[in-house]
Each structure stands twice: as C-alpha cells, then as structure tokens.
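In this section we walk through a basic example: taking a raw amino acid sequence and producing a predicted 3D structure, encoded as discrete structure tokens. The instruction is simple. Fold the sequence below.
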Amino acid sequence: MSTDLQAVAAPLARLFGDDFTAGHIGLHFTCYEADTVGDFLRATGHPEAAATWLQGHASASGEAAEAHDLDTLLVGEELEADA
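The resulting token sequence is shown next.
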C-alpha cells in the first residue's frame, strides 16, 4: 500500500474512528455501508479506526459487533481485496 494513500485516508480514519461519530452517525449507515467504510479504513492501514467505526455502528444499531467480523480487523488478517 502506498504511504500516500494511507496519508490521504488519515483524515477519514480520524473522523470515522472517533467514538462519538461512530456511535451517533454509524446507526444511519446500513450494515453494507458500514462494512464498506470499515474495509476501506482497514485496507488503507487504519484497522483501529475500522474497529471503532464498526463497534459504534453495531452498538448504535443494536447488533452484535461480531456481525461485522471485528476479530478479523483487530488481528490484521487480510481482506479479500488484499489477497
């Protein structure tokens, strides 16, 4: 991954990786949309932001966080797009 891409994604990682944003805005995203944001954050080198975002989305929408495969994000396994 390009460090330029990681740097460009950093502001989005700060935004979506914020607990307040994740909890209050995340509930307005569908699961597919939230997963897409999480996948982008992970793929651009921001797995902690991805996990925060998906945890906030899941808790705000009353889902179990496991529905969004947070274990994969936290241990840094490759996404299908990375393989």
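Looking at the output, two observations stand out. Helices lie at 3-16, 19-25, 31-43, 47-60, 70-75. Residues 26 and 33 are 9 Å apart (CA to CA). In the next section we compare this with other chains.
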